[in-house]
Amino acid sequence: MDYAVQTAADGLRVTLAGRMTLVDHEKFRAVVESIERMQGERCVFDLSGLEFVDSSGLGMFLIARDVALPKNVEIELFGAQESVRRILQIAKFQTLFRVTP
Amino acid sequence: MTALPPTPPAGSGRPPESAINIGGDLAPAMLRRIAVLHGFGVAPPGAPCTIMMTLRATDRELQACLAGGARGYVEVESDLGLPAPALRGLAAPDRLHVSVTTASCFSMAMPPILGGEMIARGWLRPDRVHDLELCLHEAVSNAVVHGNLGIRNGPGGDREAFDRFHREIHSRMAMRDYARRRVSIDISNEADQAVVAVSDEGEGYQAASPDVAPDAKSGRGLRLLRELADAVDVTAGGSRISMMFKR
What we know:
Structural class of chain A: alpha/beta
Shape of chain A: globular
Strand content of chain B: 15-25%
Number of helices of chain A: 3
Oligomer: heterodimer
Largest sheet of chain A: 5 strands, mixed
CATH topology of chain A: Transcription Regulator spoIIAA
Helix content of chain B: 25-40%
CATH superfamily of chain A: STAS domain
Low-confidence stretches of chain B: 1-16
Order of helices and strands of chain A: EEHEHEHE
CATH class of chain A: Alpha Beta
Strand order of the largest sheet of chain A: 1-2-3-4-5
Number of domains of chain B: 2
Order of helices and strands of chain B: EHEEHEHEHHHHHEEHEE
Mean pLDDT of chain B: 87
Number of strands of chain A: 5
Radius of gyration of chain A: 12 Å
Low-confidence stretches of chain A: none
CATH architecture of the largest domain in chain B: 2-Layer Sandwich
CATH superfamily of the largest domain in chain B: Histidine kinase-like ATPase, C-terminal domain
Shape of chain B: globular
Strand content of chain A: 35-45%
CATH class of the largest domain in chain B: Alpha Beta
Strand order of the largest sheet of chain B: 2-1-3-4-5-6-7-9-8
Largest sheet of chain B: 9 strands, mixed
Distance between the termini of chain A: 21 Å
Helix content of chain A: 25-40%
């Protein structure tokens, strides 16, 4: 998985690309630390370049949510490709995150 | 450790004629010994083979050997311990077998390669490739983490628990007894479906409940499998997961 973290006007923008799996724990840890330090009320994950996510990747989004919630930061999962969007739906992530096309 | 059989004496002749030829980057003497032990032939260097034997499995080599028509790809350590029945089954043209160590498996991305190969061989509908890829990925991850590395539970809980879980994976992966255990993938093309089975050499584990809360940090892998495959069968005390994909 490749990732980039950028400060946005209302918070943070995290761009993920490639395959997000069990082996990406260390990289995602850096993302979570950015959320911990961020200012603002919104963290947008741009998933348009993400080709694949597994159950461990889903767990990582939930860790990010755990860190964001006490800061009153809303996490948005934006632009997922069809195959990734389907996994988010099966996991019922629309009940936990703002999921946008 | 299994002792190697003695090398056939010089002049004892070629390995017996077989429907299965093996090849690969092993020392020629070792290839010959494996061939004799299992009743296989040895492919001439550089020629296509039924089963590619390798000392260190890689995605690139797996892809190349399957594209060249091989039906098996097997990582071989200095000792044997090869999955003989699965290899002999490769005499049939509608089967694939991949067997690699846990350490290699963890660093490889086999599901997209095997999914592409199944489509190329007409075993899988192209519109099912994402289903196959995720199911195979989850089954292989289970085989590695809960099977061969013997880590019973998923990360669960909070961020610290997540970190501990991943540290445990890397810690056990560094131990040879865990790292050398095999993960095997058997794919068979049947009349109206493909069957993909993933086996490990762990002690088995209790499959997670199919009902997982949306905010649970783990336990979702098998649920994804059951959603995406047409049927799922967990056998051998949890050490083998078979998944069916209809055409």
